[in-house]
């Protein structure tokens, strides 16, 4: 499998921006030239190239790429060129357009990013699409999935490692009661899963396993 490597010596960002501008000129787009530049620069270098391109040519590089490229190649280049926060925003927006009640891309972004990373993604979403991620998630989802996902993308959770073991015991019992009743959309269950820190949730789930003899994922399957 080929590996993309950043050369030890690279041209300046201004030179790279010039090469990309040249790639867009003429009847066709020079895709090989685009790859030779963007595929061999790290994230910081790509960010600087974008800034220089905008300053020099008065156009956002991403918009230029969007105009010149198409299909899977366009998507791959755009995702590679975006910052992590912008990439999450792009993928989230793409997911909301699929009109599905169970979109795991949105769930992955909401559950696996740190609070700061999720906040950065929401800022990028706001800047790129002129609306909030929360409103699009609320509009394009429904039912129990909406009840869970909207607060997940809205909350700025504590990211530290401190946990409250008494709280873990109390909330493990709440989870058990609601799951036993198959009341999966109960507001207390959703509150716990969407507002507690990951460390606190892990403590609660560990207590659930130790006290009730089953891991929660086995009970739910």
Highlighted features:
221 residues; mainly alpha; Annexin V, domain 1; 3 domains; 70% helix; elongated
What does this entry look like structurally?
This protein is mainly alpha-helical. The chain folds into three domains: 69 residues, Orthogonal Bundle (Annexin V, domain 1), CATH 1.10.220; 71 residues, Orthogonal Bundle (Annexin V, domain 1); 56 residues, Annexin (Annexin V, domain 1). The chain has 14 helices and no strands. It is elongated. The model has no long low-confidence stretch (mean pLDDT 91).
Summarize the model shown.
The protein has 221 residues and is mainly α.
The percent range for helix content is over 70%
Compute the CA-based radius of gyration: 22 Å
What is the CATH architecture term of the largest domain? Orthogonal Bundle
Assign the structural class, choosing from mainly alpha, mainly beta, alpha/beta, alpha+beta, or little secondary structure: mainly alpha
Query: Distance between the terminal alpha carbons, to the nearest Å?
Result: 37 Å
- Name of the CATH class of the largest domain: Mainly Alpha
Identify the CATH homologous superfamily of the largest domain. Annexin
Q: How many structural domains are formed by the residues?
A: 3
- Characterize the main sheet: none
Tally of alpha and pi helices: 14
Oligomer: single chain
The topology string of helices and strands comes to: HHHHHHHHHHHHHH
Specify the overall morphology: elongated
Question: Low-confidence segments, ≥5 residues, pLDDT <50?
Answer: none
How many DSSP-defined strands? 0
CATH topology category name of the largest domain:
Annexin V, domain 1
Strand content: under 5%
Keywords: Annexin, Calcium, Calcium/phospholipid-binding, Metal-binding, Repeat
Protein name: Annexin
Binding site for Ca(2+): 24, 26, 28, 68
InterPro entries: Annexin (IPR001464), Annexin_repeat (IPR018502), Annexin_sf (IPR037104), AnnexinD_plant (IPR009118)
């Amino acid at each position: 499998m080929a590996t993309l490597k950043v050369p030890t010596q690279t041209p300046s960002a201004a030179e790279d921006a010039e090469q990309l501008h040249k790639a867009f000129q003429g009847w066709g787009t020079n895709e090989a030239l685009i790859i030779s530049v963007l595929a061999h620069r790290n994230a910081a270098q790509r960010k600087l190239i974008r800034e220089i391109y905008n300053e020099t040519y008065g156009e956002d590089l991403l918009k230029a790429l969007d105009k010149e490229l198409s299909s899977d190649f366009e998507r791959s280049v755009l995702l590679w060129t975006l910052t992590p926060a912008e990439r999450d925003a792009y993928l989230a927006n793409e997911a909301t357009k699929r009109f599905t009640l169970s979109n795991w891309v949105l769930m992955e972004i909401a559950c696996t990013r740190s609070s700061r990373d999720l906040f950065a993604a929401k800022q990028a979403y706001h800047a790129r699409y002129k609306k909030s991620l929360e409103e699009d998630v609320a509009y394009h989802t429904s039912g129990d999935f909406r009840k869970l996902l909207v607060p997940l993308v809205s909350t700025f959770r504590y990211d530290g490692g401190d946990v409250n073991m008494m709280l873990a015991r109390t909330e493990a019992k709440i989870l058990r009661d609601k799951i036993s009743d198959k009341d999966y959309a109960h507001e207390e269950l959703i509150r716990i899963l969407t507002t507690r820190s990951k460390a606190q949730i892990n403590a609660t789930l560990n207590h659930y396993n130790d006290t009730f003899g089953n891991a929660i994922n086995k009970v739910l399957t």
